[in-house]
Write a structure and sequence with these properties.
Layout: H1 7-16, H2 33-37, E1 46-47, E2 55-56, E3 64-67, H3 69-76, H4 84-89, E4 112-116, E5 119-120, E6 140-147, E7 160-166, E8 173-184, E9 192-202, E10 206-217, E11 239-252, E12 258-271, E13 275-278, E14 295-298, E15 308-323, E16 326-340, E17 368-383, E18 392-409, E19 414-435, E20 438-453, E21 456-457, E22 466-467, E23 470-485, E24 491-502, H5 507-511, E25 531-543, E26 547-566, E27 573-592, E28 597-610, E29 628-629, E30 639-649, E31 652-661, E32 664-671, E33 678-685, E34 688-698, E35 704-710, E36 737-745
Parallel strand pairs: 4-7
Antiparallel strand pairs: 1-2, 3-6, 4-5, 6-7, 8-9, 8-36, 9-10, 10-11, 11-12, 12-15, 13-14, 15-16, 16-17, 17-18, 18-19, 19-20, 20-23, 21-22, 23-24, 24-25, 25-26, 26-27, 27-28, 28-29, 28-30, 30-31, 31-34, 32-33, 34-35, 35-36
C-alpha cells in the first residue's frame, strides 16, 4: 500500500500525468495532523481516464475495467503480445490476434480509442489495425478501460477508451529493475528472448523513470507443429522490438502544488524478413478436400522492406493544484507513427489493371505503408463545491488536435490514400454531484472539426479515377448523463447514457472510388460522414470482504454506423455504412477462499445487427432493416475466462487460467422492396478453449523467477476472425509456448 497523501496533492499528481496514476510520499515533517488522519489512497479503485482527475470507480456510472500491474505481469509471464492481457481480463474485448496487427480486436463490437499516457495511438483517419502494439508492456503499470462509446478523450472511441499508463516511481531514492526472458516452442528458430531495464528515482520534489528493452522473437508454431503463416497485416513472429522511454517530473510552488513533467517515447518493432508466407486452402470438396492453414518457409521477396510499427511521441504536462480554487492540468503532445505491412501481389497492387489482357509475368509485389502525425493540447480545470453547492464538482476545458495521415504503396512509391488532415476544437463541461450515497453526473462536449483531403488519382485496380479534393465540416454535441447509487458499503447500482463520435476509417472509401462510384469529389462522399454512437447501460456491483461481482447490460446504436465484411470477388475488406445496433451482457467476479486461494472470471455475450444495404446516394431508397447479423470481424463470439490463483508459499504463487470462445452460428436474409434484390448471409465459427499456467517464486537474494506456459495443452485451433474467408487470412493460433523469466530489483 502506498503511503497516503493529502487529497489535494493526490489530485495534483494524478492530473499532472493526465492519465498517469502518480502517487508520491510526502515527508512526515511536511504533513499536518489532518494529512495523517487520512485513509490510504487505493489506486486500484481510482481512475483518471475520461475524468482527467483522480476519481473513485464507485462514483462513475458505467462499466469500468482497471487492469492492475499484477494482471499485466501475469500475462507477461505467458506472452509479450500487447493486447493479450485485455482479452484475458476485459469482458467485452475480442480475442487477441497474436500479431502485430489488431484486426478484429474490438471492444463491445466497435473500435476503441487506444491511448498511451493519455495520447492517442494510430489515426482516426486511417485505421490500420496496428495501434495495439506501440510500447513495451514491461513499462505499463496499469490499463484503464472505459467500456462503451465515450467522447471524453476525443474522436474514435465508438467502442470505448483503452488507456495504457506507464509506471511511476514508488520508492524513495533510486530503484533499478532488470528483466530477462527466454521462450521457445522447441521448433527450429522458435526461440525468443528479452532484456529490459527500468530505473526509477523518487526524490522530495523530483522524480524520474527510465525504461529500455529489446525483444527478439522467433517464428511461431501451431499445435500440430507447423509453422504459422506470416500475417499479411504484420506478425510479431520473426521480429525484433526496441523500446526507449524517459519521463521526468518536478514539483514546485507552495507545498509542491505545481508540477511540470515531460516524457519521450520511442518504440519500434520490425520484422527480420527470414520467412515468406505459403498460402493454405480452406475446405472445398473439389479444390481442397484436405484443408491446410497458411504456413511459412525460409526465404524473402526481392526488394521488399521489413514490416514495422514505429511509434514516437513527446508530451509535456503542467498542473496546478490550486488555480482559482481548482485543479488545472494541460498536456501538450506530439506523435509521429509509421506502419508498414508485408508485401502482397494482389490485383489491387499491380501497376496496370488486371484483366483478360494482363500478363502474369508482369505481376509485382508491393507494400502498404501508413504514416500519421498528430499534435494536440488537452486542458482541464476541476473545482469542487462549485456555485457554493456542497458536493457539486465542475470539470471543464478545451482540447485541440491536428491529425495528418496518408497511405502509399512503398515499393513503387505510389499514393493509395491521399494526405488527409483533421483539425478539431472541442470544449467540454461536466458536472458531478454527490448527494449522500448517490452521485449524479452529466455533461456535454462539442466537437468542431474540419477534414481536408488532397486531390488524387486512384490506382489502376480502381480505374485510375481522378478525385477532386476538398473539405468537410463536422459539428456535433455529445452529451452524457448518469447516476450511481451506493446502496450500502457492498452494493451499488448504476444507469448511464453516453454518446461517442468517430470517423469511419475514411481511407477505405477514398481508395475504393472507381468509375462506378456516384461521387468523385470529397465533399459529396457519403461514407465520410461521421459515426455518432449512443449507448444506454444499466448494471450493479457488489464488493464484500472476500468476494466481488459485477454485471451490466448495454444497448448501443448508431443510425449511420460502420461494419466490415469481405468482398467475395476481391477477398478484400469492404465497409458498409448503415444503421448498427449492438446489445450485450457482461459480468466479472472474484472470490477469495482464504489468503492463499483466489478464483476470478469474466463473461461476455454480444450480438450486433446491421443492414444489408445502405441508403441510395440519389435517395431512391433507404437503408435496409436491422436484419444482417454482424460477424466476427466486428463482434466477438461469447467468451468465458476463468483463473485460479494459489499462493503455495508466502513468496510463491501459481495461476491456472482458461479462456473459452464459444461456437456461433449466424444467418440472416432480406429483400429490398425497391428492386426485389435479395440478400443473405451465413457465418459459422468454431470455438476453442485455451489453458495457461504461470508460476512465480520470489527469492530473498536472487530476484523473482517466473515460468509461463501459454496454451498448456498444445491445442490446435483456428483464430475466430481467421475462420471467415479473406485475403490469405487462414491462420492457426499459437501452440504451446514455454517461457522462463527472471526479474531482479535493487
Amino acid at each position: 500500500m502506498i503511503k497516503p497523501l493529502s487529497a489535494a496533492i493526490s489530485c495534483i499528481l494524478l492530473a499532472a500525468a493526465s492519465a498517469h496514476v502518480h502517487a508520491q510520499s510526502a515527508s512526515d515533517a511536511e504533513q499536518n495532523d489532518e494529512d495523517r488522519r487520512e485513509a490510504p489512497v487505493d489506486l486500484d479503485r481510482m481512475i483518471v481516464t475520461g475524468t482527467r482527475v483522480a476519481t473513485s470507480i464507485d462514483k462513475i456510472p458505467g462499466a469500468i475495467s482497471v487492469v492492475s500491474q499484477e494482471q499485466v505481469e501475469h500475462t507477461l509471464a505467458l506472452t509479450e503480445d500487447a493486447t493479450a492481457v485485455l482479452a484475458r481480463t476485459v469482458p467485452g474485448y475480442a480475442e487477441s490476434s497474436q500479431a502485430m496487427s489488431n484486426s478484429g480486436e474490438t471492444l463491445r463490437g466497435r473500435i476503441a480509442l487506444r491511448l498511451f499516457d493519455g495520447i492517442p495511438q494510430g489515426s482516426p483517419l486511417r485505421e490500420g489495425n496496428r495501434n495495439g502494439t506501440f510500447t513495451d508492456m514491461g513499462l505499463v503499470g496499469r490499463i484503464e478501460v472505459i467500456n462503451g462509446p465515450s467522447a471524453s478523450e476525443g474522436i474514435g472511441a465508438a467502442g470505448g477508451i483503452i488507456n495504457y499508463i506507464s509506471k511511476v516511481p514508488t520508492e524513495p531514492g533510486h530503484e533499478t529493475t532488470v528483466v530477462s526472458r527466454y521462450s521457445s516452442q522447441f521448433g527450429t528458430d522458435s526461440a525468443g528472448w528479452k532484456l529490459g531495464l527500468n530505473h526509477a528515482y523518487l526524490g522530495e520534489d523530483f522524480d524520474l523513470l527510465f525504461s529500455t528493452s529489446y525483444i527478439d522473437r522467433g517464428i511461431s508454431y501451431d499445435g500440430d507443429g507447423r509453422r504459422i503463416g506470416m500475417n499479411t497485416s504484420g506478425s510479431v513472429s520473426d521480429s525484433e522490438a526496441r523500446n526507449l522511454y524517459l519521463k521526468a517530473g518536478y514539483n514546485f510552488g507552495e507545498s509542491g502544488e505545481q508540477r511540470l513533467q515531460a516524457s519521450v517515447s520511442n518504440f519500434k518493432i520490425e520484422g527480420k524478413g527470414n520467412y515468406i508466407q505459403v498460402e493454405g486452402c480452406r475446405y472445398d470438396p473439389v479444390e481442397c478436400p484436405v484443408p491446410t492453414t497458411n504456413t511459412s518457409e525460409r526465404g524473402s521477396i526481392y526488394g521488399s522492406k521489413a514490416e514495422i510499427n514505429d511509434f514516437q511521441q513527446i508530451a509535456v504536462n503542467y498542473s496546478h493544484g490550486n488555480l482559482f480554487g481548482g485543479t488545472f492540468a494541460a498536456d501538450l503532445y506530439w506523435a509521429d507513427q509509421a506502419m508498414r505491412y508485408l508485401p502482397e501481389d494482389g490485383d489491387d497492387r499491380q501497376l496496370v489493371k488486371v484483366d483478360d489482357n494482363f500478363n502474369e509475368d508482369d505481376r509485382i509485389f508491393d507494400q502498404s505503408e501508413i504514416t500519421s502525425k498528430k499534435q494536440g493540447l488537452r486542458t482541464s480545470w476541476t473545482r469542487g463545491d462549485i456555485f457554493a453547492v456542497e458536493g457539486l464538482q465542475l470539470r471543464t476545458g478545451i482540447d485541440l488536435v491536428q491529425d495528418e495521415a496518408a497511405q502509399r504503396l512503398a515499393l513503387t512509391n505510389r499514393l493509395w490514400v491521399p494526405p488527409m488532415e483533421y483539425t478539431s476544437l472541442a470544449p467540454y463541461a461536466q458536472l458531478t454531484w454527490d448527494i449522500g450515497p448517490v452521485t449524479l453526473s452529466g455533461g456535454i462536449r462539442h466537437e468542431d472539426g474540419e477534414l481536408k483531403v488532397d486531390s488524387y488519382t486512384t490506382t489502376p485496380y480502381r480505374d485510375e479515377v481522378f478525385v477532386q479534393g476538398g473539405k468537410m465540416e463536422y459539428s456535433e454535441n455529445m452529451t452524457n448523463v448518469g447516476a450511481i447509487w451506493r446502496i450500502s458499503d457492498e452494493w451499488s447500482v448504476f444507469a448511464s447514457y453516453g454518446e461517442g463520435f468517430g470517423l469511419a476509417n475514411i481511407g477505405i472509401p477514398l481508395r475504393n472510388i472507381n468509375n462506378n462510384s456516384p461521387c468523385k469529389q470529397v465533399d459529396c462522399i457519403a461514407d465520410l460522414e461521421p459515426i455518432v454512437v449512443t449507448n444506454k447501460e444499466v448494471g450493479f456491483n457488489w464488493r464484500g470482504d472476500s468476494a466481488a461481482f459485477g454485471a451490466s447490460y448495454y444497448d448501443s446504436k448508431s443510425p449511420f454506423g460502420s461494419s466490415l465484411s469481405v468482398d467475395p470477388d476481391t477477398n478484400d475488406f469492404v465497409m458498409t455504412r448503415a444503421p448498427v445496433r449492438i446489445k450485450g451482457f457482461e459480468a466479472n467476479g472474484e472470490f477469495r477462499f482464504n489468503e492463499r486461494w483466489k478464483v476470478s472470471g469474466i463473461y461476455s455475450r454480444i450480438r450486433g445487427k446491421t443492414s444489408y444495404w445502405s441508403s441510395a446516394p440519389d435517395g431512391s431508397y433507404g437503408a435496409g432493416g436491422l436484419n444482417k447479423p454482424m460477424g466476427v470481424l466486428d463482434v466477438n463470439p461469447d467468451k468465458l475466462a476463468l483463473s485460479v490463483n494459489w499462493k503455495f508459499v508466502a513468496n510463491g504463487d501459481i495461476t491456472l487460467g482458461a479462456t473459452r470462445l464459444f461456437d456461433r452460428h449466424l444467418s440472416g436474409s432480406d429483400v429490398r422492396e425497391y428492386d426485389g434484390a435479395t440478400y443473405s448471409s451465413e457465418e459459422n465459427t468454431e470455438g476453442y478453449t485455451l489453458v495457461d499456467l504461470g508460476v512465480n517464486y520470489q527469492t530473498a537474494r536472487f530476484g523473482k523467477f517466473t515460468l509461463g506456459i501459454e496454451n498448456l495443452l498444445d491445442k490446435q485451433y483456428i483464430l475466430s476472425w481467421s475462420q471467415v474467408p479473406g485475403w490469405q487470412n487462414y491462420w492457426a493460433g499459437r501452440g504451446r509456448m514455454i517461457s522462463l523469466s527472471h526479474t531482479i530489483t535493487f
